[in-house]
Amino acid sequence: MVQRTVVNTDRVVYRGAKATEAVREICAVYGEGAIAERTARYWFAKFKGGNFDLKDASRSGRPSEFNEERLDQLLHEDARQTARELAERIGSNKSTVAEHLHSMGKVQKLGA
User: Fold this and answer.
1) How much is the pLDDT for 70?
2) CB 27 within 8 Å of CB 13
3) How wide is the angle at C-alpha 39 spanned by C-alphas 53 and 9, nearest 5°?
């Protein structure tokens, strides 16, 4: 038997439930596809292990932020720098710098 304990109006804790049952009930309330069964299984395993932290874990090897102001400042110092040179000065990789340059409307001018 599934016991539901209401924590507040937005959250329901499922005790003795299986991930499949929780997915069915959540989708009945929020609509088809609101949660994948795989996600629910991950949550159930995490909670069963005693981890109730709802924040995402930090990822290794990936910067959490990119300082676009610093990139703009470096461009003002010398607009002829390559993405590779900018990346080295910022401490990021070339593709990330190129992506931010593009989002800032900076384009490569050939023959300039």
Assistant:
1) 92
2) no
3) 60
Whether pTM exceeds 0.85: no
**pLDDT, tens digit (0-9, with 9 covering 90-100), for 11-52:** 555 566 788 888 888 888 888 888 889 988 888 888 888 887
Tokens of 75: 């461009």
Q: Which long-range contacts does 70-74 make (Cβ < 8 Å, 24+ apart)?
A: 71/97, 71/100, 71/101, 71/104, 72/104
| Residue 23: other Cβ atoms inside 10 A | 19
- C-alpha gyration radius of the chain: 23
Report which DSSP code applies to 84: H
Report domain extents, the chain. Answer: 3-48, 68-103
Class of domain 68-103 (CATH, top level): mainly alpha
Mean pLDDT calculated for residue range 65-87: 90
